[in-house]
Design a protein that fits this description.
This protein has 130 residues and is an all-alpha fold. The protein has a single domain, classed as Nucleotidyltransferases  domain 2 (Four Helix Bundle (Hemerythrin (Met), subunit A), Up-down Bundle). The chain has 6 helices and no strands. The longest helix has 24 residues. The protein starts with a helix and ends with a helix.
């Protein structure tokens, strides 16, 4: 296993952990919406970074999903989402940590759909590389 594939697998495992936490919080009710959004964002971010590792691409320390998507596009790898899809999820990475009240930018179902699409794509790409 190459170091790139090993790191991609590690990040994907962390993304899956965030997905599981998202599901717990998403099912807990409205009071946990921001926390669920945070973990949905983290799951997508880590899956995208796993794909970048797989392609041996450097990436900055960022929570900006659109910039990660642009890097993936430059590497010739496009998950089945658009920048417009990802835009409302990015604020959950910062706002949840620094604000006790965050506007509901996405429904839980919309978050779940993004997480499933990006993680599913990352799993399939990594599985076909190993």
């Amino acid at each position: 296993m190459t170091p790139q594939l090993e790191e991609a697998c590690r990040l994907l495992k962390l993304a899956e952990r965030d997905r599981e936490t998202f599901e717990i919080l998403a099912n807990a009710g409205k009071q946990t919406h921001a926390a669920a959004g945070f973990h949905a964002q983290q799951a997508v971010e880590k899956a995208m970074k796993a794909l970048l590792c797989l392609r041996d691409c450097d990436f900055p320390r960022t929570h900006d999903l659109e910039s990660l998507l642009a890097l993936l596009a430059s590497a010739g790898t496009l998950p089945p989402v658009t920048a417009t899809d990802l835009r409302p999820l990015t604020p959950y990475a910062v706002d949840f940590r620094y604000d006790d009240e965050i506007a509901s930018l996405m429904t839980v179902d919309a978050m779940r759909g993004l997480v499933q699409r990006v993680l599913g794509f990352a799993v399939s790409q990594i599985a076909s590389s190993g």
